[in-house]
Design goal:
heterodimer; A: alpha/beta; Rossmann fold; FAD/NAD(P)-binding domain; 2 domains; six-stranded parallel sheet; five-stranded parallel sheet; globular; B: alpha+beta; Ubiquitin-like (UB roll); three-stranded mixed sheet; 8 helices; disordered C terminus; mitochondrion (chain A); electron transport (chain A); NADPH:adrenodoxin oxidoreductase, mitochondrial (chain A); Ferredox_Rdtase (chain A); NADP (chain A)
Amino acid sequence: MIRLKRMAVGAIRSFSSKITPIPRIAIIGSGPAGFYTAQHLLKSNSKLHVDIYEKLFAPYGLVRYGVAPDHPEVKNVISTFSKTAINDRCRWIGNVEIGRDISIRDMRKAYSALVFSYGCQIDKLLNIPGENLKGVYSAREFVEWYNGLPSASTLNPNLDCEDVVILGQGNVAIDVARMFLSPLDELRKTDISEYALDKISKSRVKRVHLVGRRGPLQAACTIAELRELTKLPNCFGIITHQEVEFLREKIKELPRPKKRMMELMLKIADSSIDNKIDFQKQWSLSFFKSPLEFLPSEENPDQLGKIRFSLNKLKDNIAYPTGETVELSTNLAFRSIGYRGVGIPGLPFDSERGLIPNKNGSVINERGLYCSGWIKRGPTGVIATTMNDGFETAKTILEDINSSRIDITSDQLGFDGLANSLKDIKVKPLNYQDWSKIDMIETQVGTAKGKSREKFVDIQEVFKLLDH
Amino acid sequence: MAELATVAMHVDSREKSSPHRSRKMNFACKKLFTSASRALLVRKNLKDLPLKTFSTEILQPKAQKETITINFMKNGSKIPAKAKVGDHLLDVVIDNDIDLDGFGACEGTLSCSTCHLIFTDEQFKIIGTKPTDEELDMLDLAYDLVDTSRLGCQVFVTKEMNGWEIEVPAGVSDARDV
């Protein structure tokens, strides 16, 4: 009787292990969105396995390649990500690009669910004449360049001028401004790429003009970034009184965050009145101006010489041209009006909005496909926004696992089922131990130079180091 | 000068290696030098700092710290925690291994709003330090912001907090409405 009971229990065990195979989830993109999604998935389901794919040789996405080098505190989020990466049920796979090295079709066969969290790689264009002139750069590329993103390392921008115009007033625009305004000795200690520091230290830039098409209430930057500008040593900020004066009446009705931001702007405008010519550098926030045309310089028809702007008025938060125009002379301009996502072959994509159509992270009409982060909601928000966003997608996936809306079968082998196909196309995947080694060397090289890190830019050097 | 050195030493004991911090520190020091009301400022700064001083182990070993109980309220459930007087509330969450996903993402460096806590009006008044502009700047990015919101990394435990119930806003569910 006892034996029979044991047999029965054994049968139930082997049966149940067959009907509950491990849910294997692939996450495509190892930036904050990918890691926060993985973190929540692993924590909430003790069986589930996660493979996180990264096309570069380094993880962390915009934390490594987007966050300003002089904001090292923001990069502290990495310590939570690395805890996720070393979880037994998590695997990080670097140097593999999904859609190129492995097709979405093959990925779907190997996993119960795919999560796309690869962010927004291209920037919006102004689509105005002269945008291809020398001296007109994308702020995104400039950020990638000073942060050592391999594909941007050859940008080599010409910074030999005194005035810079930045089109846009978001946090990226302010990050770019700070590269020209911060004391070099502060930048030197950061993980800014050495070639970029060299170039920036030789630049003659004295004045940075941040121009927005709408008004102060619509400026996209956060108050912390704006306040930081006001505290730069030997640097003077200007906001023209006429452009913000209307706020004084409105300010009381505003919700606290906007109210505090407008108070800061008015404060800057008030202190702009004293002409402080003894400051070495200056920046300005200027509103209600849309660029109409980049015009060549008189000496060189290929080189930016000035920008013509339309003066705007606002109606229902939309900027309309007044018909008046104004010109600003400059040889250097950065376009900083936002990022855009691009699609992957075999994946639904809303090309108008530049994101994957989804509901709470579940890709519309696609069982087993999910998205997270900027490619899910568009390129806005701070790290906390992406964190909540990643958690939300993870919750949606967990609900779908519980209600059997996703297929979980034992022939889904995850990366183990795909590794061989990579050998055939001579792609060498990296694992998290490889990354830890790269990380250690980068930190050591940096320390020797008196900075927090010197990033590898050339993947061949990385492979040499790893002895592949 | 001795006073200034003390201020500099205390400005941040956590983030010695951070260049950003040291810049803030330099700036703070410069401000102290140039200001006409230097003495006043020094005193003000020192007044803000002694709580942090106690959190450094050199000055006061952990064992000697007085311990009280603080309750974190999340989604209606009460999570009690042992809190050492002088620690900040983010430390309390970490030391007690309280499972709050994503809490304190920037590790207490005033660069995010993920350690957002909500106090009652009375509690808010009792908290020893008032929020700085920098703290309010970060709070302005938080979900569920109210007038009595603070960042856990900026609020230090005092004896008066024994038995307090402090609300942890429910971040994730709100993200769906944004």
